[in-house]
Each structure stands twice: as C-alpha cells, then as structure tokens.
C-alpha cells in the first residue's frame, strides 16, 4: 500500500474522489493524512468523516514560505507518506519543497496543460474559444502548473458554457483522472525520463473526439 498525504485549501471534492477510490477493494494506496493551509474548510470534514488524521498548517502563521514549508514537510514525514497529492492546494511551493519530493509530488489542474495554467482557467478557455477543455494530473516542478504529465482527460466546451458549467464538467473528469493517476503510481507503473512521464502497460483510447460535430 502506497501511503499518501493529500494537501488541500478548500472544498476537497478531489480529496473525496481519492477517499472513495481507496475504499474500493484492491486499491493500492491509502491516505495517511490530510493537510489544509486554511482552517475550517469542507475538505477537512470529508477527511474526518473518513477517519483520516488532519492538520491545519496555515501559511499565515509563518514569517516566510520556507518556514511554512518546513512544517508542512515535517507533518508529511511524520505521517509516513510516500507520495504527496495536491488537491486544490492553492499555494505555490518553492524549489526547496519541490526538490525534496521530486517525482513524489503530484498536482491536478483543471485544464489541458500547457494551456491555461494559473487561476481563472475556465474563463480563459471560454474566452479563447477552445472546443475541448479538461484536466491534467502531473508531477510538480517549481514552475507553476508545469511538470511531467501523467494523465489528461478531455471534455467538450459547449457554445453556451459559463465558467460554472464548464468547471462542473471538468470536475467530473478530475474525479476520474486523479484516482487513476494515483493507482498507476502506486502500482509502480509511472516513470519519469527526460521530464516526461511514461506509464507501463497503459493503453490510449482507440478513437478521437470531434467538437462540434456537423
Ligand atoms: C479543482 O478543480 C482543482 O483542479 C483546482 O482547484 C479545484 C479544487 O477543487 N486546482 C487548481 O486550480 C490548482 N492550480 P476541490 O477542492 O473540490 O478538489
């Protein structure tokens, strides 16, 4: 069983997807702690309901990023976690932390990276007029929303989408993609070479999608 720490800042629906996956028989990973940098968020309730130990490590309590991250790192190590999953964790991590957890630190971002990194992803996708959006699970590098891509899921963008409707559609894809990526890592099937992630024994879908259809 791969031991996982999940870092959150809010609602925690991706955390919930991971909790649900771990409760299915044979899932090769286990969440050993959930850490939020914001107190009182719903994700902490979700973890408590699943009897997972939680910590609040508020960045506001520290003089600088390094001190914040040292405590974060200590909490994660105490839990015995071998992999760190960022799930709506809205703090940029410094090279110090990223190097300590290199290729053992993953993030989910609600776009098909490298398109639309950063905030307001869905509005940017709508404003640009792309016909597909989606999500990306990737290993974290110091540059924001950048790093070897493990899994992507694509969803159509509809002509009348708002930020909210597109976000909801992408979120459904996130809830499939994140547990799948974690499963593949826990099964030891994911390797990084030359800053690309390779998945042993994985298949690509047999067809393509086109949007809009004539
Ligand atoms: C998710 O859509 C996640 O992809 C996004 O925040 C949301 C968190 O939702 N993360 C980022 O934008 C990171 N750059 P959740 O708390 O319900 O999982």
Features:
214 residues; alpha/beta; Rossmann fold; 2 domains; seven-stranded mixed sheet; two-stranded antiparallel sheet; binds glycinamide ribonucleotide
Layout: helices, strands, pairs:
Blueprint: E1 2-8, H1 13-22, E2 29-36, H2 42-49, E3 54-56, H3 65-79, E4 83-86, H4 95-100, E5 105-109, H5 121-128, E6 132-139, E7 149-156, H6 163-186, E8 190-193, E9 196-199
Parallel strand pairs: 1-2, 1-4, 2-3, 4-5
Antiparallel strand pairs: 5-6, 6-7, 8-9
Helix pairs in contact: 1-6
Bound molecules: glycinamide ribonucleotide.
Radius of gyration: 17 Å
Sheet of most strands: 7 strands, mixed
Strand content: 15-25%
Characterize the overall form: globular
| Class by SSE composition | alpha/beta
Describe the oligomeric state of these chains in a short phrase.
single chain
- The CATH topology assignment of the largest domain is Rossmann fold
Structure in words:
- With 214 residues, this protein is an alpha/beta fold.
- The protein folds into 2 domains: 101 residues, Formyl transferase, N-terminal domain (Rossmann fold); 98 residues, Formyl transferase, N-terminal domain (Rossmann fold, 3-Layer(aba) Sandwich), CATH 3.40.50.170.
- The chain has a 7-stranded mixed beta sheet with strand order 3-2-1-4-5-6-7, sandwiched between helices.
- Strand 8 and strand 9 form a beta hairpin.
- The radius of gyration is 17 Å and the shape is globular.
- The protein starts with a strand and ends in a 15-residue tail after the last strand.
- The mean pLDDT is 97.
- Bound molecules: glycinamide ribonucleotide (GAR).
